[in-house]
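Here's a chain:
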Amino acid sequence: MSMPDATQQPLTPPPPDATPTPAPTPPPGGTPPPSATQSSALAITALVVGIVAFLSGLAPFWGIIAGAAAVVLGVLALKKQQSKGMALTGLILGAVAVLTSLLTTITLVAGVGAINAARDLDRHVTPSVAAEEPADDETIEVAEPSEEPAEPAAPAAPAETAGQSNAARAAENYLRVMPFSRTGLIGQLEFEGYSTEDATYGVDKLGADWNEQAAKKAQSYLDVMPFSRSSLIDQLVFDGFTQAEAEYGVTAVGL
């Protein structure tokens, strides 16, 4: 039996087949990290809306709405630290669109208001041509000049003087405080220094109901002391009321 050769190397078993290392699995309940596209969704949306708003910025109202949306989206994208370039671009384009559309809207509204005002003014100022033109079958009569001389125009009423105006105001103030007869109020104004003409003008200008004043005067006397019918009538006549006014006033208070 032969001995093995000492120089011959011992045989070693072949290495086992290499198996692929499994990929690490996410922890239970976890979510995979967002992709670059998902992390820039708001920034991309802000950029797209900003471009649309900028291109339609001259449209009234619409540019304001779209531009405001782009600004809001751009701010949200910046807060979430998404693509700063796209977010800022969308925000700036949206702001420009808002300003442009706002100016266009103001100009449009002002123009419409000016047109409506011009139409209203034209309706009030422009005379009706149809009303001025005579009908085809209507004959136009020319008035012949009158041989009689024209009557002179009545003189204009003189303007109210300062004294008359002040007398009227003073008479009104007195009647607000207490009742007066016509002659009694004229006498009171004369006592204040007004002329008889001014005092009479001021009292008559009021157009007061002297029967009503007599009734108020009679009631004021009865509030202080009792009177008979005849004595109260005499008192009112003494105050300047006429006999008829005095009797009316006493009857009005129940005597």
